[in-house]
UniProtKB/TrEMBL annotation:
SUPFAM superfamilies: P-loop containing nucleoside triphosphate hydrolases. Coiled coil: none annotated. Residues 39-285 form the ABC transporter domain. Keywords: ATP-binding, Nucleotide-binding, Transport. SMART domains: AAA. The keyword ATP-binding applies. It comes from the Bacteria. The keyword Lipid metabolism does not apply. Residues 1-34 are annotated as: Disordered. This is Amino acid/amide ABC transporter ATP-binding protein 1, HAAT family. InterPro entries: AAA+_ATPase, ABC_AA/LPS_Transport, ABC_transporter-like_ATP-bd, ABC_transporter-like_CS, BCA_ABC_TP_C, P-loop_NTPase. It holds the Pfam family ABC_tran. GO terms for cellular component: plasma membrane. It comes from Nocardioides scoriae.
Amino acid sequence: MPADTSPTSTPTRSVADQGRADLEGLPTEPGVKKKDPIVVASDVRRTFGGLTAVDVEHVEIQRGVITALIGPNGAGKTTFFNLLTGFDQPDSGSWSFNGTSLKGKSAYRVARLGMVRTFQLTKVLSKLTVLENMRLGATSQRGEKFWAGALPFLWKSQEQEITERARELLGRFKLDAKEQDFAGSLSGGQRKLLEMARALMVGPELVMLDEPMAGVNPALKQSLLTHVKSLREEGMSVLFVEHDMDMVRDISDWVIVMAQGKVIAEGPPRSIMTDQRVIDAYLGAHHDTDISELEQVVEAEHGKDHSA
């Protein structure tokens, strides 16, 4: 019997594995070019009166990985989130998602492209049920059109599909028992879960989370961490702002550091924790410190920020 001479197939890497491999060996410097970026921003600047909130020369977000965006209070992290996602417009610069320019695009158009976000302070409609909040997350609903509203045969089947998708996600996030409760009755951590679940209704490629651990009790923190990691394993890219350094070290593949509106450092979590530029940004130049002291300062700032 002749030997099998057919070529041996090479196992296909997952998006997450490929993304992590693409980060290996990259120089740890601000604005480093990525092999397969999902977001690219250049010369993005936003001022408020005489204050420059964001002045990003160049930054790229690698596809398929979890990227943390950290920095002291007032570093411009949330403002940068707002600029990328269409909730605010910069004074100048260019930024793109999957090669498509986002300049001038409103937030809902950005979301339809597959780039969604959550907020530091959760945005749920408290007088609607949990299930109704989920349904609102779906895009391109036929029944939204004025002329179609009176013609149920045009949208009934889609409405059913949306409801099924919403219930599937509520089950995944352990909120299915709450679907008929008003969203306003949920705890802070449950609202975070609802907001994340609702963001997935559009089938996004990039999920952006603004301080997902803020105000979450310890019992729900591990659940949130697990959900964030599962997004990566499902092929989505994640960019999150966070002060919880344990979370940054635990789940992020890459860390970007902002201070005074600029990107000052990039790299893997462990190298960032010992980067002198990062230590100086948090503690001031020429300050001798170690990782634990840096973490204490970050957590103290985080607590001060949320008690204000």
